[in-house]
Amino acid sequence: MYNFGLIPAKKDTTAVFNFSNTGETPLVITGVKTSCVPYQNTLKVL
Known about the structure:
- The protein has no helices and no strands.
- This is DUF1573 domain-containing protein.
- It comes from Polaribacter batillariae.
């Protein structure tokens, strides 16, 4: 969980989360969710 705090209206913000795959199979990230309904469709997994 990551708390962005208060973000002013109409202002973009970014957070980077680094993952290390130490296993032998591909790392698959699914089920990324936001608790703020207006932004649920703006998350990008790169």
